Automatic annotation (TrEMBL):
GO terms for molecular function: glycosyltransferase activity. Keywords: Transferase. Residues 14-155 form the Glycosyltransferase subfamily 4-like N-terminal domain. Pfam families: Glyco_trans_1_4, Glyco_transf_4. The lineage of its organism: Bacteria, Pseudomonadati, Pseudomonadota, Alphaproteobacteria, Hyphomicrobiales. Signal peptide: none annotated. InterPro entries: Glyco_trans_4-like_N. This is Glycosyltransferase family 4 protein. CDD domains: GT4_PimA-like.
Length: 360
């Protein structure tokens, strides 16, 4: 099968990019011809190493630029002749839709950022992949027909991005609490800071480590600097591969207010952390609805602090949740994601063949 993925860029530190790169490389490993059309980025050498071709299609949202991008994509589709076009972001879907309509190529879209209003445009696809059951339910409420919607839960274990990674834990003080992600309001970091402040009063030996960067980094550092526990909090910035920090941490916390299906949870579970996540969007599904991680209400620092205190105060309880993080871990592999996605491609191709036969 010839598969063309389209996304805005291939730079690191963006979840949808990681998911698309993982999928494209896994499909190439299964023997398919795969290409990514994007604005390019850090992952291009990795893609080429794994037999994934790349094409330049600039996604900057300027009228003249988008017109040029449309012509570039149309030319590439005509020359490369994909069996399937798979768009991963709104601009990609809008660029691809008329071209796929004219060429008769099935368009598959994946809803990575369901919280954005523009996600409704992903309904342009012949098949719309939701990255969790929660995203599927949200897209149904927004009017996407159930006949189009499919769920492929995010998973990243075994991806080419992890090949050759260091699994040696970095040196972190114990007990350590870790957050990895973008530093912006959707991730709920002020809730974590307040919860840690409350927990630190009872467990002054605890440390909080923040790995990531974002537009609110300065605000968050200033916020923490005013707390009595400020010396126990470390902002380490973004890491190309945060796994060694996960392998060293005792507790991983994701206090998000909105998160369709964060890849970081599969990595934290693989690293063997005791995992705490807010009960929103795709987080419960990624934590086996509480069997593989502790779920807490969003926007509730006291509830989060109570769970932190429970784990910090009882080493046996902490170890119990570290062990539970391994429950059904095989469901979060990129191999499973690749095969389920290929099945969706097959259904779209079969539907297209039936429509063509009827029209004839």
């Amino acid at each position: 099968m010839r598969i063309l993925h389209i996304l805005n860029h291939t730079n690191r530190l963006n979840g949808h990019v990681h998911a698309a790169v993982d999928l494209a490389c896994a499909q190439a490993q299964l023997g398919h011809d795969v290409c990514i059309a994007s604005g390019g980025g850090d992952f291009d050498p990795l893609l080429h190493k794994n037999n994934v071709a790349t094409a330049m299609v600039d996604h900057q949202r300027k009228p003249v630029n988008l017109l040029k991008s449309s012509f570039a994509l149309r030319k590439h589709v005509h020359a490369w002749q994909p069996d399937i076009v798979h768009a991963h972001m709104m601009t990609s879907a809008v660029l691809a839709w008329p071209i796929c309509r004219l060429s008769g190529t099935p368009l598959i879209t994946t809803v990575h950022n369901e919280f954005e209003k523009s996600a409704i445009l992903m309904g342009l696809g012949n098949r719309v992949i939701a990255v969790s059951e929660a995203v599927r339910a949200s897209m149904l409420r927004r009017g996407i027909p159930s006949s189009k919607l499919c769920v492929v839960l995010n998973g990243t274990i075994g991806s080419v991005r992890s090949e050759g990674r260091s699994r040696t834990p970095v040196d972190l003080p114990s007990p350590s609490i870790l957050f990895v992600g973008g530093l912006h309001p959707r991730k709920g970091l002020p809730d974590l800071f307040e919860a840690f402040r409350l927990a630190h009063e009872q467990h002054p030996e605890a440390r909080l480590v923040i790995v990531g960067e974002g537009p609110f980094q300065t605000n968050y550092m200033e916020m923490v600097a005013k707390m009595e526990c400020a010396s126990a909090v470390a902002f380490l910035g973004a890491k190309e591969d945060p796994f060694p920090w996960m392998a060293a941490a005792d507790i991983f916390v994701l206090p998000s207010h909105a998160d369709p299906a964060p890849l970081v949870l599969s990595e934290a579970r693989e690293a063997g952390c005791a995992v705490i996540g807010s009960k929103v969007d795709g987080i419960p599904q990624l934590l086996e609805y509480g069997a593989a991680g502790i779920l807490v209400p969003p926007h509730d620092p006291p509830a989060l602090a109570a769970v932190l205190c429970e784990l910090l105060g009882e080493p046996a309880r902490m170890q119990e949740w570290k062990d539970k993080s391994q429950v059904h871990l095989d469901r979060l592999t990129i191999s499973r994601v690749a095969h389920e996605t290929l099945d969706i491609y097959g259904s779209a191709l079969a539907a297209g063949s039936k429509n063509a036969a009827v029209a004839a």
